[in-house]
Structures are given as C-alpha cells and as structure tokens.
Amino acid sequence: MTENTLFREELAKISADMKKxxxxxxxxxxxxDFLLKKRGMSQKEFAHLMxxxxxxxxxxxxxxxxxxxxTLAKISVVLGEDLIKVL
Length: 87
What we know:
It contains 5 helices and no strands. It has one domain (about 15-80): lambda repressor-like DNA-binding domains (434 Repressor (Amino-terminal Domain)). It starts with a helix and ends in an 8-residue tail after the last helix. By secondary structure, it is an all-alpha fold. It has helices at about 5-10, 15-40, 45-50, 55-60, 70-80. Helix 3 (about 45-50) packs across helix 4.
C-alpha cells in the first residue's frame, strides 16, 4: 500500500462536518492574517488590543483554534471588519 493510498483512505474517514469545520477555521485564520497585514498591525499590537497574549494570537492564525462567537465579534470590532457574514 502506498502512502498516497493510505492518506486517501484515512481522509475518506473524516466526516463532512469535520472537514467543513477545518475549512472554516482556516478561512477565519487567513482573514485575520490578511486584515492584520492590510492594517500594518503586528500580532503583538493585535494581541494587546484583544487583551490576549501574542502566542495565543499566533495559535489563532495557525488555523486550528475553535473560536467562540464572542471572540469573533471582538476580533471584528478590533479589526473594523466582519470576519464572517451570515445571511
């Protein structure tokens, strides 16, 4: 069995909702990173404005953090732009 085949078999075992969660987590992380760069804001500055540590913000941008709605709302306010839109 090749590594590629094994990878595909394991990937097929992941539920659709888990795949969607990972996609959304990465999309949010990418948007935060984009908005920080757009504003010329460092992770350290952003962490200070959020009342968080720089390592915590770094983990957010790493794409694996499970955000609460409260945190998403605060990030949107601090960065001056909605991270998500629900319509």
